[in-house]
Amino acid sequence: MLRKHKTTVLSLFSALMLCSCSQTAAPLQTDNTAHTRDVFAMDTYMSMKAYGENAETALSAAEKYILRLESELSVTDEQSCIAMLNSKGSGEVTDDATEIIRKALEVGESTDGALDITLYPLLKEWGFTTEDYHIPEQSVIDSLLADSGFERVVLDGNTVTIPESFQIDLGALAKGFTSDKIMDIMQENGADSAIVSLGGNVQAMGTKPDGSPWKVSVRDPFMPDTDMCILEIQAKAVITSGNYERFFTGDDGKNYWHIIDPADGYPADNGLVSVTIIGDSGLQCDALSTALFVLGDGRAQDYWRAHRDFDMVLVTDDKRIIYTEGIADRFTNISNMEAEVLSLD
Ligand code: FAD
Ligand code: MG
């Protein structure tokens, strides 16, 4: 089911790019040829598109970096600094891992612990890492929750220390960091413009080669093979967390998904089925997409009002779309759900 969705995302991405390239605004740059590269890493189909005479060089550098990040960050790769930290309880991690962990702790703090990178043992127990899904016994959930808590992760320079029996995983925000890095690499290598989709998480450098904004679609969580809205962006990340990507149906007939509420150890079920964050930093957007999904409708809106350095599109479990005023003129609803603008008033 997971792979099917991700393939769909990839083909949607290609279709979107194809359709957006057919527009006829006056070209600003001479080389409008799209150079593409697909990579499968972090259990995600990643699709990159770059323009300009240096595009191929930039794509190769980005591919290399993606593979490097995967081997640095993967919890299941015994040689990665994260796996080593998890087995030893303390250790030096790479600069990239340090930056991600710092952001995870910061967002953990600002969201009252909704983002908690120490939930890995609980995620394993639910089977989300192994696909050996089951609903854990309450006593097991209680004991694993007692042995978690992002505030007990100590970061000192590049050295991380966690209590014995703790394990961390950066899956909630590492792909956002990856798309940030891809954008940096595209820029450093002289690509004219670029866009990447990491399993549906999109980040763009600049505008399309013709100077017009990129058009990015967001899936309908109630019909994941269909798009729900189109966003026009330039130099932004658009990152979504939803309950429809990785889930299983329990013996009780209910669906259980991969975003866990640290408050009770169960899949977060606080009124939202999808959260899309639009902002300058992929890392920040990815961290917030997961955290605000956990916080739920009301608290996500409060968080936006208090911070306002990002935009968002929320979809509630009673089929309403709520989008923030900053993207109001770049948002097109193509679903049969009602969409309302969230403003500060
Ligand atoms: P997001 O909402 O961005 O993140 C959800 C993920 O965050 C969950 O899957 C869980 O891992 C974690 N999480 C859940 N609740 C919380 C919470 N409250 N606070 C913090 N974190 C939470 N997956 C595989 O199946 N096989 C692999 O080999 C594999 N390798 C990977 C290697 C790397 C380096 C990375 C970064 C990820 C890897 N993944 C792997 C995970 C896979 O890419 C996940 O699907 C992805 O990280 C989840 O991202 P998302 O965009 O689907 O959801
Ligand atoms: Mg996320």
Distance between the termini: 41 Å
- The coarse overall form would be globular
Structural class: alpha+beta
**Residue runs with pLDDT of under 50 for 5 or more positions:** 1-29
Strand order of the largest sheet: 1-2-6-7-10-13-14-15-17
Ligand kinds: flavin-adenine dinucleotide, magnesium ion
How many strand units? Answer: 17
Oligomer: single chain
Chain-averaged pLDDT: 92
Write up what this structure looks like.
The structure is a single chain. This protein is of the alpha+beta class and 345 residues long. The protein is built from nine helices and 17 strands. It has helices at 2-21, 55-73, 81-88, 95-110, 120-126, 138-146, 174-188, 282-295, 297-307; strands spanning 35-41, 44-51, 90-92, 154-156, 159-161, 193-198, 201-205, 214-220, 223-233, 237-242, 247-249, 255-257, 272-279, 311-316, 320-324, 331-333, 338-342. Strands 1-2-6-7-10-13-14-15-17 form a nine-stranded mixed sheet, with helices on both faces. Strands 3-5-4 form a three-stranded antiparallel sheet, with helices on one face. A hairpin with a 5-residue loop joins strand 11 (247-249) and strand 12. Helix 4 packs parallel to helix 8 and helix 7 (174-188) packs antiparallel against helix 8 (282-295). It is globular. 46% of the residues are buried. Residues 1-29 have low confidence and may be disordered. Flavin-adenine dinucleotide (FAD) binds at residues 42-44, 70, 73-74, 76, 115-117, 119, 123, 128, 169-172, 174-175, 201, 241, 245-246, 258-260, 262, 286, 289-290, 294.
